[in-house]
Specification:
heterodimer, A: 120 residues, mainly beta, 7-stranded mixed sheet, B: 106 residues, 4-stranded antiparallel sheet, globular
Chain lengths: 120, 106
C-alpha cells in the first residue's frame, strides 16, 4: 500500500524556519516526483514545491524561491521541505503527494498533512 | 500564471441529484486538468486527470469533460459521501488550483 507521512509541523514565530519531512513507502520512491501543497485556514489548495524523482530537480514557484527549498534522500525514502523567514500567511496544513505514475505530473495519493502555525 | 476560476462557489443539492461543476482557465491548458475531492481533515483525493480520465477506484458517477479553457466535472447521482469541496488543477504551466466548489447537502 502506498503511504506518505508528513511530519515536522508545529508552532513557529514569524521570521523563523521549519523543515517538513515526507516519508514514503509502498512504491519505488526514487522514480517518482514528490510535491508539497498547502491549505491555509478557510482557503483553497496552493502548490508550493516539487522535486523530480529522476535527476532530483527542485521546482519552486518564483514567488517563493528566496524562502523555500526542497530536497530528497532516496536512501531514506524522504523528501524535505525547508521554509525560512516564515510569515503569518504561511500558516497552513502542508500535504505531500507523489505523482500518479512515472512521468506523470498528477498528484496521487496525498498524505494526511502536517499543520504549520506561524504566530508570536 | 494560469488562473482557474471555479463556479459556482457552492452548490446545494440532495442525494440522488446531478451535480455540474465548472472550471474555466485564463488561457488554454489543453487537456492538462485534474479534479480533486477534499473533505475536512482528510487528504485530497484525485478523481479525474487529463480532463476526462477517472483515477483508479473512482466510481463511474464521476465524469470529466472539456479541453482548452472550459471544463466540467459531473456527478451523475449524488451519494451521501460525495458532499465535499471539489478543486480543479492545471499542470500546463507550473501548477495552479481553482478556488473550489463546495457541494453541500440541501
Amino acid at each position: 500500500e502506498v503511504q506518505l507521512l508528513e511530519s515536522g509541523g508545529g508552532l513557529v514565530q514569524p521570521g523563523g524556519s521549519l523543515r517538513l519531512s515526507c516519508v514514503a513507502s509502498g512504491f519505488p520512491f526514487d522514480n517518482y516526483d514528490i510535491n508539497w501543497v498547502r491549505q491555509a485556514p478557510g482557503k483553497g489548495l496552493e502548490w508550493v514545491a516539487g522535486i523530480s524523482g529522476i535527476g532530483t530537480i527542485p521546482y519552486i514557484p518564483d514567488s517563493e524561491k528566496g524562502r523555500f527549498s526542497i530536497s530528497r534522500d532516496n536512501s531514506k525514502n524522504t523528501v524535505y521541505f525547508q521554509m525560512n523567514n516564515l510569515r503569518a500567511e504561511d500558516t497552513a496544513v502542508y500535504f505531500c503527494s507523489k505523482t500518479l505514475s512515472v512521468g506523470s505530473h498528477w498528484f496521487d495519493p496525498w498524505g494526511q498533512g502536517t499543520l504549520v502555525t506561524v504566530s508570536s | 500564471e494560469i488562473v482557474l476560476t471555479q463556479s459556482p462557489a457552492a452548490l446545494s443539492l440532495s442525494p440522488g441529484e446531478r451535480a455540474t461543476l465548472s472550471c474555466r482557465a485564463s488561457q488554454s491548458v489543453s487537456s492538462l486538468l485534474a479534479w480533486f475531492q477534499h473533505k475536512p481533515g482528510q487528504a485530497p483525493r484525485l478523481l479525474i486527470y487529463d480532463a476526462s480520465n477517472r483515477a483508479t477506484g473512482i466510481p463511474t458517477r464521476f465524469s470529466g469533460s472539456g479541453s482548452g479553457t472550459d471544463f466540467t466535472l459531473t456527478i451523475s447521482s449524488l451519494e451521501p459521501e460525495d458532499f465535499a469541496v471539489y478543486y480543479c488543477q492545471q499542470r500546463s504551466d507550473w501548477v495552479t488550483f481553482g478556488g473550489g466548489t463546495k457541494v453541500e447537502m440541501k
